[in-house]
Design goal:
alpha+beta; MutS, DNA mismatch repair protein, domain I; DNA polymerase, domain 1; 5-stranded mixed β-sheet; 5-stranded antiparallel β-sheet; 15 helices; 22% strand; binds magnesium ion
C-alpha cells in the first residue's frame, strides 16, 4: 500500500517535470511594417504612421505605429476612417519586399540562439530554447539577448514571451507591448490562466468571445467549469484546445516550416457570378481539391486564404488562422462563408474564386486525434 502511494507520487512528480522542462519563447516585432517605415525614413519617427491603402479609396490599415494607435487606429480599419480619427497621420504604402528582407535578417538572429524555430508570420516566431545554442543559463536571459541583438543590429524593437508552452508564450509576448518581456513560469501558469480574461486566450476571436460570454465564461476560471464534451459540442475541435490550454496543457511542438509553403487551388469562372450560394458551391469543390492535395502530402494547415477576383479584375484576399490545425474540406468550409461575407462578392460580380492553405506542417502522428477503432472483421473468424 505504502509502496503504491509512493509510486503514484513519483509518477505525478515526473509528469510535472516533463511539463516544466520545455522552454518556449514567442517573439513578436512591435508594429512591424510601421516600425520599418520609421526606421527607413527618419521624418516619420515619433509620428502617427499608417501603412496601408489609399485613404481616398477603399484602402485598409495593414499596420500602424504606436503613435497612431493612441488615436484609436488599428489594423483592418478602413484608411478613410483612420484619417478621420487622425488627420495628421502619415499614410505610407506597404513595401512587402523590404519587410521580407528584414524578416529574413531577424530569422538569422534567431538561428544563432535556437535550433527549433517556427515562424508564425512575417514578424512573429516561436523558438524552442529548452537548450539554447549559446549556453545562456536561462530562457529569460536568452529572450533578453535576442531582443537586444535585434535592436542593436536592426534598430527595431520586439516583444517576447517566455513560458513552458506555445500557448502561454504567445499570450505572454502580448502583455507588455511594445518593447516588453514577459515570463510566465510553470508555477505561475495555472493561477495566471484562471484570472486571464477570455478574450486574451489565443484563438478566441470576437465571435468566440461573444459566445463564451453568453455562456458565462469571462475568465479562465469560468472556462474550467465546462467539461471537455460541453466545449467540443459548442466549439468543435477548438473546444478540445480550449479545454486543454486552460489547464496548462499544450504539447504542440515548435515545428520548423515544411519545405512547401502553401497548397491551393482556384477556378476562373466561365461567366461572372453574383450569386453567393453558387459561389459557395464552387468553393466547396475547390476545398475538396485542396483537401485532397493536403492528404496526398500528409500535410495540415493553420491558415486559410480566400481569394476573390471581381469582374473589374480587382483581387482581394481574406484569411483566417486557427490555433488548431485543419486538413479536411469540411473544416475549410466552416471558415469560408464567414470570410466570403467580409468581401463585396455578390454586390460585385466575381470572375475567380480560390482557396489557399499555408502554415503547413507534416501531420503529427503523436498529436491527439480521433482514433479509428478497428472494427471486428466480419469476414474472418476471430483468432481465439
Ligand atoms: Mg507584430
Amino acid at each position: 500500500m505504502h509502496l503504491q502511494t509512493k509510486n503514484v507520487k513519483l509518477h505525478s512528480h515526473r509528469n510535472q517535470r516533463v511539463m516544466a522542462e520545455r522552454k518556449i519563447i514567442h517573439i513578436d516585432m512591435d508594429a512591424f511594417f510601421a516600425s520599418v517605415e520609421q526606421l527607413d525614413n527618419p521624418d516619420l519617427r515619433g509620428r502617427p504612421v499608417i501603412v496601408g491603402g489609399d485613404p481616398d479609396g477603399r484602402g485598409v490599415v495593414a499596420a500602424c505605429s504606436y503613435e497612431a494607435r493612441r488615436f484609436g487606429i488599428h489594423s483592418a480599419m478602413s484608411c478613410a476612417r483612420a484619417r478621420r480619427l487622425c488627420p495628421q497621420a502619415c499614410f505610407v504604402r506597404p513595401r512587402k519586399e523590404r519587410y521580407r528582407e528584414i524578416s529574413g535578417r531577424i530569422m538569422e538572429i534567431f538561428k544563432k540562439y535556437a535550433a527549433k524555430i517556427e515562424p508564425l508570420s512575417i514578424d512573429e516566431a516561436f523558438l524552442d530554447v529548452t537548450t539554447n545554442l549559446k549556453n545562456i543559463p536561462s530562457a529569460t536571459w536568452t529572450a533578453h539577448a535576442i531582443r537586444r541583438e535585434i535592436y542593436t543590429t536592426l534598430g527595431l524593437t520586439a516583444s517576447a514571451g517566455v513560458s513552458c508552452n506555445k500557448f502561454l508564450a504567445k499570450i505572454a509576448s502580448d502583455m507588455n507591448k511594445p518593447d516588453g518581456l514577459t515570463v510566465i513560469t510553470p508555477k505561475q501558469a495555472l493561477p495566471f490562466l484562471r484570472s486571464l480574461p477570455i478574450r486574451k486566450f489565443y484563438g478566441v476571436g470576437r465571435v468566440t468571445e461573444q459566445r463564451m460570454l453568453a455562456m458565462g465564461i469571462k475568465t479562465g476560471a469560468d472556462l474550467l467549469q465546462y467539461s471537455r464534451q460541453e466545449l467540443v459540442n459548442r466549439f468543435g475541435k477548438s473546444g478540445n484546445f480550449f479545454y486543454d490550454v486552460v489547464r496548462g496543457n499544450d504539447n504542440r511542438p515548435v515545428c520548423p516550416r515544411q519545405g512547401r509553403k502553401s497548397i491551393g487551388s482556384e477556378i476562373t469562372l466561365k461567366e461572372d457570378l453574383a450569386n453567393r450560394e453558387k459561389m459557395l458551391t464552387i468553393l466547396t469543390r475547390i476545398a475538396t481539391r485542396v483537401a485532397e492535395a493536403l492528404a496526398k502530402k500528409k500535410l495540415s494547415a493553420a491558415t486559410l486564404i480566400l481569394k476573390i477576383r471581381y469582374s473589374d479584375f480587382v483581387t482581394v484576399t481574406r484569411s483566417r488562422t486557427l490555433p488548431t490545425r485543419f486538413s479536411t474540406d469540411e473544416e475549410m468550409m466552416a471558415m469560408v462563408p464567414g470570410l466570403l461575407a467580409t468581401t463585396e462578392a455578390g454586390t460585385k460580380k466575381v470572375r475567380l474564386l480560390g482557396i489557399t492553405t499555408t502554415n503547413l506542417q507534416q501531420r503529427d502522428s503523436h498529436a491527439p486525434r480521433q482514433l479509428k477503432l478497428p472494427f471486428c472483421n466480419r469476414d474472418r473468424t476471430p483468432h481465439y
